[in-house]
Amino acid sequence: MSVQDSAFRGFANPVDPSPAELRAWAYEPDSVPLHTMPKDWDLLVSGDRLITTLFDLAMDRSCPARRFALHCLYIYAADGIRTKFQAHPKRRLRKLVEQAERQGDEQMAIWAHNTRMLQARPELFDYRDWCEGGLVRQARRLG
Predict the structure, then answer these.
(1) Does the chain have fewer CB atoms within 10 Å around its N or its C terminus?
(2) Segments making up each domain of the chain, as ranges
(3) Of the candidates 37, 33, 34, which has an alpha carbon nearest to the alpha carbon of residue 13?
């Protein structure tokens, strides 16, 4: 039995999961329900170390935790833009946005559009939309 064939058994440290653990959980999210995770877990994992993994998960239409990954992308984008890229590199966010525009489906295209809109007009930031999942639950293009 390979490592991929075995069931996900949890995080060694849920506050600081590895990319492999996050990916494994994302394909078996019921193995460790979100409500059992540390408070603000979405904010904790939405950093530079895991953003590539989260992006890949959000791009995968078959990923059971895709909405969670997309939610984390909104947090990451808002955090970078609102801190004038002190929190996250501008270049990394730009590359993710460009890749979402080129290869993503409608949900990813909306995320890319909204990220560009927030960068152009920071007053569009609304905590509920960007950090509490509003733009994932009710997908819409900001104007």
Answers:
(1) N
(2) 19-137
(3) 37
